[in-house]
Design goal:
By secondary structure, the protein is mostly helical. The protein is 67% helix and 0% strand. The chain has 6 helices and no strands. Keywords: Membrane, Transmembrane, Transmembrane helix.
Length: 148
């Protein structure tokens, strides 16, 4: 359910008042510390990924015995895989890395409509865990309300 223009305006006023009254608390609500942590984890994951690739290349280029070459290669692969997993899990949700920008051009808490961003012209989707028939009934109810 979308909020009316007046409700959006009131919410923005409340957000501004909160920022003026307690900027530290507002910063915590925005999740800026979580964003910094996610960025750091992504950078660390990238560095570990490059180190794993370096180990793989070193295993191939260095003239080592076959057993040691295999061990270094497998170790490089495991390190590379760990770095990729670390970087990808940090970047899984775009909202964790980049702040939400409203139509007014300023960042906000993202609490309007549950913090979800909608594509223009599309109706919000139900959760995937909702049974099929309930989704169809909801869709039918919305169509009837709109007069289609």
């Amino acid at each position: 359910m979308e909020l009316s223009e007046e409700e959006l305006r009131m919410l923005e006023q409340m957000e501004r008042a909160l920022v003026e009254e307690d900027p530290k608390f507002a910063s915590t609500l925005r999740g800026t510390s979580f964003q910094r942590t996610a960025r750091r984890r992504m950078i660390l994951g990238g560095v570990v990924l490059v180190a794993g690739i370096g180990l793989l290349i070193a295993a191939v280029l260095l003239e080592l015995t076959a057993v040691i070459q295999t061990i270094v290669g497998v170790l490089g692969f495991v390190v590379m895989l760990g770095g990729a997993i670390l970087a990808l899990t940090s970047a899984r949700s775009p909202s964790a890395v980049t702040p939400k920008v409203r139509a007014s051009g300023r960042t906000g808490f993202g609490v309007v409509d549950g913090g979800r961003q909608h594509r223009p012209g599309r109706v919000g989707r139900q959760r995937s865990g909702t049974p099929f028939m309930e989704r169809m009934e909801e869709r039918w109810r919305r169509r009837r309300e709109r007069g289609f």
